[in-house]
Specification:
120 residues
Length: 120
């Protein structure tokens, strides 16, 4: 079994910054692509950013230039630095990881979500 644990959400004023973290643990042989998704009230979950194990990154258009995804492969951890936050960034942010387990099974795992609220 594998587990993703997120942290770093909270309440921030418009223009402010937050840093989210997500650590993968459990029966892990290798963590491949890791990423962040978000779901605002009344909306579907949407892509935010992903990063491969080699460091290749992709971003959704609404967050380009404001958010930065990074990872620490030694710690199986992915980060999301969010700057210049806007009220429309308010959502529950979910971590996702594609994992190869110790018994060579592929697992796509989700975190429990962390709330980000941007409001004055």
């Amino acid at each position: 079994q594998v587990q993703l644990v997120e942290s770093g959400g909270g309440l921030v004023q418009p223009g402010g910054s937050l840093r989210l973290s997500c650590a993968a643990s459990g029966s892990i042989r290798r963590v491949n692509t890791m990423g962040w998704y978000r779901q605002a009230p009344g909306k579907q979950r949407e892509f935010v950013a992903t990063i491969t194990s080699a460091g290749s990154m992709e971003y959704a258009d609404p967050v380009k230039g404001r958010f930065t995804i990074s990872r620490d492969n030694a710690k199986n951890t992915v980060y999301l630095q969010m700057n210049s936050l806007k009220p429309e960034d308010t959502a529950v942010y979910y971590c996702n990881a594609d994992i190869l387990s110790r018994i060579y099974s592929h697992i796509n795992s989700w975190g429990q979500g962390t709330q980000v609220t941007v409001s004055s």
